[in-house]
Each structure stands twice: as C-alpha cells, then as structure tokens.
Design a protein that fits this description.
Elements: E1 36-37, E2 50-51, E3 66-73, E4 76-93, E5 97-110, E6 124-135, E7 140-151, E8 154-157, E9 162-163, E10 176-179, E11 187-190, E12 201-211, E13 217-227, E14 232-239, E15 243-247, E16 250-256
Parallel strand pairs: 1-11
Antiparallel strand pairs: 2-6, 3-4, 3-16, 4-5, 5-6, 6-7, 7-8, 7-9, 7-10, 11-12, 12-13, 13-14, 14-15, 15-16
Length: about 260
C-alpha cells in the first residue's frame, strides 16, 4: 500500500463525513515508555487461519465499500478513492499453506478542483491493488500490493510492489500486521515485510474521540507511521466503526457502504 495508505468503514448509504471538530483526545501518550513490538507470528500463514470477511473495528473492509479523501500534498490538491472489490487473490506458502486475501483498490489523482471526483483532464498519480486477510483473533494482515505509478497518463513504474509469498523473487518476505486486535496504545507492529522494498512500521500512540457532522462521537486511535527506507513519518487517525478519518493532510469527505 501504499506506502501504506488510507482506509475506512462503510455504511449502507453515502455519508458525508468531513470532520467538523478537532480530535478530542486525552493526555497524549507520545511521551510514554517504548512501545511493545508485536511478533510477526500473529500473521504467519503456518500459525493462523484466515478469512476475507474483515470486520476489525478500526479497519473493516466490507465488500463494495468506497471512501473518498481530499487534501493538499506539497501544495497540490490530491484525491484518493479506496474501493473494496468483490475479488480475491490467492497466496501460496511453503508446506502447502494457501491463503485467500481480499483485494482493495486505491486510486490517487491530481484533484485540481478538490471535489473528490476524477474530472476530465485530471491526471492519475497511482493505482494499487492491495491484499488483506483477517486472522482468527481479528488481526488484519497485509500480504502486499501491485502498484502502477503514472506520469502524463502513462504507467512509468511499479515501485513498491511486493507479495508476501515471494513470487517476485525477493528474500525475507512475509505478511505484515496492518491492524492488530485489540488495537491499543503502546504497541508497535511491522505493516510491510519486504526488505528493501516496503518496510512500513506503525505505533498506536493514543486514544481519543472525534465528532462527526451528524453530531455523533466516535472513539479513535492515533497511529504514528515510520518508513525506515526513506526515514519519513506520518500520522493517521482511525475511528471505531468508521475507519480511517485522517491520513496526514488528507481528510475523509464521503463514504459509501455495502
């Protein structure tokens, strides 16, 4: 993903959910003791059973759900659309272990007028197909992605693509922990396990609440991301029963559910 990008929860109809208030959080845990590192065995194919029915409270992926975000990155208006496809992808591991994953499409474009719609003349930036499955304890595992990077309407790169079953010939590949269960402050986990290609790590740093436009209040977790390959950092906020609310400068503007 993305370099590990942005996800959320759907509802039965289109719901505009631009945040109308700042996150109402308790005392920050950024100054807390070092986080506990979760073991990758939580997503090991030979130690778990998996399902494509993903209902983790902070990272649910119901088939047919779609979310749209807008925001500015480096002064440019960017749009992001995420769709949970009615499609699966199979992965083969040693010892005859096979895992079926859910396919999630991410589409990012230059949203010139910041309306969340791909209008004529607006250029694609990246399209990826990401692979997820959930274990018996509710942990969402990330099995990799196919990536198409665009310039002037043409695919110019597949940088960042990887598969946990090693079909791309890379050593050291394995499924990553994308969202643990339970998701609590003070735990860290590796989301991408593709040495030299994709190695994103995450730490849940605090809980809080967010107010949605209809006045409802949802519980949240704030996740700090770190990419050891380029030393970049970011912050995401996930709402319980809502999914991703904020991803750096990008904000959720609409969600259409199952």
């Amino acid at each position: 993903m993305m370099p590990v990008r942005r996800y959320i929860w759907g509802s039965a109809s289109v719901l505009v959910v631009c945040l109308v208030g700042a996150l109402l959080t308790p005392a920050s845990s950024f100054g807390a003791p070092p986080a506990t590192q979760l073991p990758l065995s939580l997503c090991a194919p030979d130690q778990n059973t998996f399902t494509v029915s993903i209902d983790n409270p902070y990272f649910p992926l119901p088939v047919g759900a779609q979310w749209v975000y807008t925001g500015k990155e480096q002064g440019e208006n960017i749009g992001l659309r995420i769709t949970v496809l009615d499609a699966t992808e199979g992965f083969r591991f040693g010892g005859g272990r096979n895992v079926t994953t859910r396919v999630v499409e991410e589409l990012e474009w230059a949203d010139t007028n910041a309306n969340g719609v791909i209008d004529p003349g607006e250029q694609l930036i990246e399209v990826s197909r990401n692979y997820f499955a959930q274990t018996q304890d509710g942990t969402v595992c990330y099995f990799g992605e196919n990536v198409d990077i665009y310039e002037d309407g043409q695919i110019v790169s597949h940088e960042g693509a990887w598969r946990a079953d090693g079909r791309r010939g890379l050593p050291g590949l394995a499924p990553g922990i994308f969202m643990p269960a339970p998701a609590e402050p003070g735990i860290s986990f590796q989301q991408e396990v593709a040495p030299g290609v994709a190695e994103d790590q995450a730490t849940i740093v605090r809980t809080g609440t967010a107010v949605l436009p209809d006045g409802s209040v949802v519980n949240t977790i704030t996740v700090r991301d770190f990419n050891p390959l380029d030393r970049s950092r970011g912050t995401k906020v996930y709402g319980q029963g809502v999914g991703l609310i904020e991803d750096g400068p990008l904000r959720l503007i609409s969600v259409m559910g199952v």
